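Please, structure for the following, as tokens.
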Amino acid sequence: MVVLSKKTTVFLRAPRATCLRQKPWSVPYFSPLRTLRLIHYAAWIAQRWHDPAFPHAFSWFDSPRYWQDHILNLREQIALMDEPPLIQAG
């Protein structure tokens, strides 16, 4: 049996909205950081594409479907960043 501290148990049971209310300054950064992560992940694979393991492990990376979806995701992220944040920082 694993014994958790009361603080850990409360954190694990807390809804996600509760965590957001505690740090409202971070909400406006969600979309830009997600966009950066999407771009960084694709760049990371592209930089290592000549490693023989990468084309096998990421066989979908050079498919037209992946790039269509990737561009669509980036366009959606741009649209989200153009909208005002749900919670104002400050």
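The chain has a mean pLDDT of 80. Helices lie at 6-13, 16-22, 30-47, 53-57, 64-82.
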